[in-house]
TrEMBL record:
Protein name as catalogued: ABC transporter substrate-binding protein
Source species taxonomy: Bacteria, Bacillati, Actinomycetota, Actinomycetes, Pseudonocardiales
Species annotation: Amycolatopsis dongchuanensis
Keywords: Signal
Limits of the Fe/B12 periplasmic-binding domain: 52-305
Signal peptide bounds: 1-19
Amino acid sequence: MTRRFPLLLVLLLVLSACASHPQDEASNAAPDTEASFPVTIGQVTIPARPTRIVSLSPSATETLFALGAGPQVVAVDSQSDYPAQAPHTPLSALSPDPEAIASYRPDLVVASADTTGLAAALAKTGTRTLVMPDAKTLDEAYDEFVQLGRATGHQAEGESLARQTRADVDRIVADTPKPVRPLSFYYELDQTYYSATSKTFIGQVLARFGLTNIADGNDPSISGGYPQLSAERILQADPDLVFLADTRCCGQNAQTVGARPGWNTLTAVKEGHVFPLDDDIASRWSPRVVELVRAVSAAVTDAGK
């Protein structure tokens, strides 16, 4: 999901070793010969193993390739920038054009939402649309790995990917040293101080480490979990850690944060606990969540000494 337009990002979010280890294994796997069709997922029945898939979800694109379904993917949307071999196109996931999508002759389209009648429009061409909403929890992400595996004829790979990702995340969290004192954090989506509460996917990932989220306030559900904080509120909360999910989109780093008016007084800044994250990994529910968990673990270990 794009990090280039913060307000649009928030609206979209409201609407709706390394992770490469299981990913590499799955990507080399042969199709699951035990998978049977038709399969029904939610309201969608897929009659046969799809051979021409269009993905309009960066998270789904990453997962499809991790499952070994990459050879079945014929087109991905403009924001699906990983993996490099994905067949990138100008297709928009924000305002999908049914005619442009249909030009790729898909037998299955995967999207994270359908607010424009996309499924109905594509159904007229005989194309089925599978909506896989943005996961709100890690368990939902694992379940969607399995569902995408079933939908593409890679059920065993989907189940294996879910098990391996869950095991990796659990192991990293368990192996992270407990801080000597409780730690609080500020998670930045952009430099206008949009953040994520514990009611969001990213918030729940960080909650696994026992951290206090300053964005929660009195209502973690406010603004769909993505409130815009004020500089005054952040300074008053004085978080122990600052996580930046606006490094690639907006050029933020420890130096730019420390140069903000008054921010040099923050505990996180003074103690060198401002941690840059990869914007894309930090905003997707793909198997690369393991990389995010590993980065948070390293930050907590460093700040908790």
